[in-house]
Design brief:
Strand 1, helix 2 and strand 2 form a beta-alpha-beta unit. The strands form 2 sheets. The protein has a 4-stranded mixed beta sheet with strand order 1-2-6-5. 25% of the residues lie in helices and 31% in strands. It has 5 helices and 6 strands. With 146 residues, it is α+β, with helices and mostly antiparallel strands. It has one domain: Vaccinia Virus protein VP39 (Rossmann fold), CATH 3.40.50.
Length: 146
């Protein structure tokens, strides 16, 4: 994925790092984001601490995740290989209370929280997911430092 991104020439700099210890400069960013990764972390607190460390005062951390409702109902994150074989990715359930506690302990303030439900419009893109109509599929948390 990094090679594909690099070849698009839209980023000044790309770096592979642990999301809990990036080695990027402290207090240097107005925006940090993490998308569809929190469920693969055993613990949330380290990533929230790292986001808080990276942000300038009034900077935002946006976390978009796979809704824990899916994991709790036995639908893990997965992908399909070229031959169609489904491969499950290790996932961990994190309740929203765990996110709220981790963000607060890191000194972040929650400013927005949204959940996305699979609806008819959503099914236009993924019609095979019809059995999950009206299930919450994703969520977004917006945090502010300071």
């Amino acid at each position: 994925m990094l090679e594909i991104t690099k070849n698009k020439h839209v980023y000044r700099h790309l770096q592979v790092a642990d999301v809990t210890a990036t080695a990027l400069r402290s207090s240097a960013y107005d925006l940090c984001s993490m998308v569809l990764a929190d469920e693969h972390l055993v613990e949330l607190k380290p990533v929230y601490r790292e986001a808080a460390r990276l942000l300038r005062d009034q900077g935002n951390f946006v976390l978009v995740g796979y809704h824990p409702f899916f994991l709790m109902n036995g639908v893990p994150t997965h992908y399909h290989r070229a031959d169609g074989e489904a491969v499950m990715i290790e996932s961990h359930i994190h309740l929203f209370s765990e996110h709220f506690q981790a963000g607060g302990e890191a000194g972040l303030i929650l400013i927005d929280f949204r959940e996305c439900i699979i609806d008819e419009h959503w099914l236009l893109t993924k019609p095979k997911w019809r059995e999950y109509l009206n299930w919450p599929v994703s969520f977004a948390l917006v945090w502010r430092r300071g």
